[in-house]
Design brief:
single chain, 933 residues, alpha/beta, six-stranded mixed β-sheet, 40 helices, 9% strand, globular
Length: 933
């Protein structure tokens, strides 16, 4: 019985611990955050004895922290154990405070928000704060909810989640109380047979709590949508920035520090050379700023040190290589060491973890950034001066075998750069764990006058500490995605984009709305940002710049500070409460207060952190006007559209792969081109053909060598693929390849002939008209070749083809009419447009939709009613499955070209259609609407 009782006592806390574990990245169970604390709150019953409650809460809390910070253990056993023992104290403190609140009948939805947020702020309080595994971090991908962080910080999201948990727990307790009361009343009134109901006052209180919390959620959602919708007014595209990601085990660097000079030099050189190779590739892609990870340059690079070392010293070699690389190429930001030589200039008396910027003139920037917040045990050992005995004990557990402590910096440095367009930009660097500390990002963002002084933030880090390398296997820890998720809140809090360059990952770009961007303009890393773990590579992308200044940037962590103060006051009240009641309050004015007034006074204490929750006018105005929300925000649909096309590129069906490639090319989704490049080796000819056309149309230079080898007949035996490669080479400026696909128009293979006609039209070379008319009139040409030749002539703008097009448009076959309509749209003449308008009255729905699409393509939304009719008049009810799919595809394409708000509202349902073809067409429409914006 005793064992069973202990288990029952432990179960609620274990349940909460398990849920709090799985809600954090990378596991996608974030929805459990909204109920994860309920068992904990319910377990803190007034009937629970304080001492067993404290012991149970502490044991489970200790196991929770030991388990979830397992990645600290390989670095420092002493630090891991000591920190977990210290942090685990917060659970029993919160448990006692919740028990007290239930005794005093303080609303749990309010108490939960204050207590749990206060506890988060007190994590690692005496170590400068440990901003990790907050409730808010589980919602990093919930872009709408997290926008309130620009007022309250991450604490605002944690507060909201804790409130919901408190409300659910409170409703459960109210229901239990009501059931108990009913049972008791029935027992007393059985003989009178009087119906028993919950008191109206109890129901009213529950409804009031529900309304309050739901209102808070509604306000959060409305505010989030407003912030997202207004961002287009304030966000502009900055320079192309590249981020490098190495994949170096920390053990390699550690052994290099211990090894002999020659071995260490060889290891450092290998790391440097690998990154330099990536950096040159990024410079070739046009990057204006190239970022290297933290301390990956194993050297001290500040000039006062380099001036006193020998010319052949490795540090000087690295410095010169970086100068040569940056000169006339790009600004290069590297993570290395700073140092101060002693008076004799023979050794360093101070060492810093630093960031250095090399300018385009081949010189170092005038100042560097030295890391301000050093990681305890990892970068600095405690008690060096204050407690030598304990320091010597800690040294026995030090994996390095020597005192590797660094000095802390003191200046929040701002770097400046100018891009190739002569635009000036400013940015700052957060090193490693600094990106998790709100105050550091805030200090970088604003100057003393409260004005924004930077355009973006850089986070360089070495997370190789937290990755296990076993032979050929790489085992990343949960620290990597959690570190990236924490950075999301620094971006939202200050409305600054953050680019991360991290050894072993996750290197990514986070915009000022907190979106971790998948894909990139150029690079070799995986498309999905959160999958960039335990690999090397690089990416380059445009940096979004947000001009907004936030309430949080100006006022900091006011909410979590207030909650921490309230938690501290509640602890004090409990400690001295009995004395106050029994001795000190006798005869005082507090003792004369009624029970109701005492409760009211306690509630006021808890409502103090919510002083601004109803308003915060400064943050809501920001001297901007609120946009009226549109029916559908295309920006919100972009991630889903990208996911659909990415899945299409990997689909088992070759037709789906080809369709997805066509969308990438037509809408210029360059971020997906690395995946398209892989399809150059696809087994299916139409897929390879489409992939080469995408490379050509987007002039994707990274695939030029692959395409050239095909055009030269070195790789692909299929003639269709070879002529496509020849067309691609003409797009890269090699006009000599024009004859390859020009001559193919006379091929005996009708498919090759049709594809040659297509390529001649796309080439823009009007010298091809004679050949196209020949193919059109040749008796040897199939109908497919003739239709393709007609469209190619229209694309080249030859108005002589109009009579032929007119005849096709008025053909008795609907499919022929659709082909003619698309060719008529390509002709782009007034007469062609008039014909398209007449086809809006065609008897066939598909024909009308095709005409609407072509008119929309040229800026005329006259076909909008035809598209609306598909949804509003249920015109598709009699179609079979295949016909319905075709209509939906044409409808999506028409929406993409017309792009009115009235039509965009239908995109979400098309994006979730059961047909892959429809989803791909809808994704194309999303991209086209985004381009129009």
């Amino acid at each position: 019985m005793r064992v069973k009782k202990i288990f029952v006592s432990l179960l609620p806390f274990i349940t909460t611990a398990v849920m709090l574990t799985v809600i954090q990245p990378p596991v996608s169970w974030s929805f459990l955050a909204w109920v994860s604390l309920v068992p904990f709150i319910l377990a803190c019953s007034p009937k629970a004895r304080p001492i067993p409650l404290v012991i149970i809460a502490y044991i489970v809390s200790l196991c929770y922290w030991l388990g979830n910070l397992y990645w600290v253990f390989p670095i420092t056993f002493a630090g891991w154990a000591a920190f977990c023992v210290y942090t685990a104290v917060l659970w029993p403190i919160v448990a006692l405070c919740l028990r007290y609140c239930r005794i005093k009948k303080i609303p749990l939805f309010l108490a939960s928000g204050v207590l749990f947020v206060g506890a988060e702020r007190l994590q690692g309080f005496f170590l400068g704060g440990f901003f990790w595994r907050f409730l808010a971090h589980s919602q990093y991908h919930n872009i709408t909810i997290i926008q309130i962080a620009d007022i309250f910080g991450a604490a605002g999201v944690s507060f909201l989640i804790a409130m919901v948990n408190g409300l659910i727990a409170e409703l459960i307790l109210d229901a239990q109380s009501c059931i108990t009361q009913k049972t008791e009343d029935r027992r007393q009134k059985t003989e009178d047979k009087i119906s028993v109901r919950c008191p109206p006052s109890s129901v009213l209180r529950s409804l009031t709590k529900i309304v309050i919390v739901c209102s808070m959620i509604a306000v959060t959602v409305v505010y989030g949508r407003w912030r997202i919708n207004q961002s287009n007014k304030f966000v502009t595209n900055g320079p192309l920035i590249a981020s490098l990601q190495s994949n170096v085990p920390q053990s390699v660097k550690r052994e290099a520090l211990r090894a002999e000079a020659k071995v260490a030099e060889k290891t450092s050189q290998a790391i440097f050379d690998e990154l330099m190779q990536q950096s040159k590739a990024a410079a070739g892609a046009g990057a204006e700023l190239i970022i290297w990870p933290e301390t990956m340059v194993q050297a001290t690079l500040n000039p006062e040190v380099l001036d006193v070392v020998e010319p052949e010293h490795p540090w000087k070699v690295f410095d010169q290589a970086l100068r040569d690389h940056s000169k006339n190429n790009a600004f290069v930001l590297v993570g290395a060491f700073g140092g101060t030589p002693d008076e004799s200039k023979t050794e360093l008396v101070e060492r810093y973890n630093s960031a250095f910027l090399y300018k385009k003139n081949g010189r170092q920037y005038e100042k560097r950034y030295d890391k301000i917040h050093l990681v305890l045990f990892g970068e600095v050992l405690p008690f060096r001066k204050s407690f030598p005995l304990l320091f010597n004990l800690l040294m026995k557990f030090n994996p390095y075998g020597f005192d590797h402590s660094l000095e802390a910096g003191s200046e929040y440095s701002v770097f400046e750069m100018t891009d190739s367009r002569s635009q000036d930009y400013k940015f700052s660097v957060m090193i490693c764990y600094e990106a998790t500390i709100p105050e550091i990002a805030r200090s970088f963002t604003l100057d003393k006058d409260g004005q924004k002084r930077i355009d973006w933030l850089v986070n360089i880090s070495n997370d190789g500490w937290f990755v296990i390398f076993e032979k050929e296997k790489v085992l990343p820890s949960t620290e990597l995605p959690q570190h990236a998720a924490t950075c999301v809140f620094r971006a939202v809090e200050n409305r600054v984009s953050i680019v991360r360059s991290v050894n072993t990952g996750i290197s990514c770009l986070i915009d000022s709305l907190g979106r971790i961007k998948n894909g990139f303009s150029a690079g070799t890393l995986p498309y999905d940002a959160m999958q960039r773990k335990g690999i090397d590579g690089w990416f380059a992308d445009e940096m979004p710049i947000d001009k907004r200044v936030t309430f949080f940037s100006k006022h900091g962590q006011w909410l979590d500070f207030c909650c921490a103060v309230c938690l501290g006051l509640l602890i004090i009240i409990q400690m001295i409460g009995n004395r106050l009641n029994n001795k000190w309050l006798k005869g005082s004015w507090l003792n004369k207060l009624s029970i109701t007034n005492r409760r009211l006074l306690t509630v006021l204490l808890f409502t103090f952190p919510l002083a601004f929750l109803a308003g915060c006018e400064e943050s809501l105005s920001l001297q901007t006007a609120v946009n009226k929300p549109s029916a559908v925000s295309v920006d919100n649909l972009m991630p889903q559209a990208l996911e659909i096309i990415e899945a299409g590129l990997a689909d088992a069906d070759p037709q789906v792969r080809a369709n997805a490639i066509e969308v990438v090319a037509a809408t210029k989704q360059t971020t997906l081109m690395p995946k398209v490049q892989r399809l150059l080796q696809d087994k299916v000819v139409p897929v390879r053909f489409s992939a080469i056309l995408a490379v050509a149309d987007l002039e994707y230079s990274l695939a030029k060598s692959d395409v050239q080898s095909v055009a030269d007949g070195l790789k692909d035996e299929d003639e269709n693929v070879r002529i496509a490669a020849a067309y691609a080479m003409t797009k890269f400026g090699h006009s000599e390849y024009f004859t390859v696909f020009r001559d193919a128009i006379a091929s005996k293979d009708q498919t090759v002939r049709a594809n040659a006609a297509l390529l001649l039209g796309k080439s823009g070379n009007k010298d091809a008209l004679r050949l196209l008319y020949w193919a059109l009139q040749s008796k040897d040409s199939s109908d497919k070749v003739r239709f393709q030749a007609v469209e190619a002539i229209a694309v080249l703008g030859d108005e002589r083809i109009f009579p032929k097009l007119w005849a096709i448009v008025y053909s008795g076959y609907a499919d022929d009419r659709i082909i003619g309509i698309r060719a008529m749209g390509a002709l782009e003449t007034a007469k062609a447009k008039d014909v398209l308008v007449t086809k809006l009255d065609d008897d066939i729905l598909e024909v009308r939709l095709a005409a609407a699409e072509q008119l929309g393509k040229h800026g005329d939304p006259i076909g909008e009613p035809e598209v609306l009719d598909v949804f509003e008049k249920n015109l598709t009810s009699r179609l079979d499955k295949k016909e319905l799919e075709r209509v939906k595809v044409l409808t999506a394409l028409a929406i993409g070209q017309i792009g009115t708000e009235n039509l965009k509202r239908f995109l979400p349902q098309l994006l979730t259609d059961e047909s892959k073809s429809v989803r791909i067409a809808a994704a194309r429409a999303v991209f086209q609407c985004a381009i129009r914006q």
